Amino acid sequence: MNKTTARQKYIQAREALTQEEAEERSLAIANQCLRLPIWDKVNYHLFLSIVQKKEIDTDFLMQVLAGKDKNIILSKSDFKTGDMQHFLLTDNTVLRVNSYGIPEPQDGIQIQENQLDVVFVPLLAFDEKGNRVGYGKGFYDRFLEKCKPNVIKVGLSFFEAEPHIEDVSPLDIALDYCVTPDKIYAF
Known about the structure:
The chain is of the alpha/beta class. The protein has four helices and eleven strands. The chain starts with a helix and ends with a strand. GO terms for molecular function: 5-formyltetrahydrofolate cyclo-ligase activity; ATP binding; metal ion binding. Belongs to the 5-formyltetrahydrofolate cyclo-ligase family.
């Protein structure tokens, strides 16, 4: 399967989920994440969900991270440059939904990419080798390239792996794990 076909297939599959199904799967994913061998780290980067696109609700995972007293880092995207800035979530963090429907921190304590230990990565689809398909803008590949080499990359998916994504680019950065409601894939 190529990336374009995978994008179309999984956007439709997500749209077909009821709100209740999406919520149940999001909770199951957060619970599965508790089984990952990542909880001895400090700085966890988390994406916030685009509600209209029925993305995985990361609020459940945010509660897990907060309950484990971990530093939660959120990003703000610059759609002109294709870069992201990262901010520590604190009690004073102001979140606003941008024009693309993404909740983002407005400012705060900036965190550099090389300070991150674990990055939870959004995706539409992934394959059995840990290759992911996003929306195709390259934000996460550029971001992950700036992270330290041993940063742990954890994809979150409502659906199971595709056998193979054909058109993987050398610029694409593979996942270390992908968590679905029923399974953890380790690559």
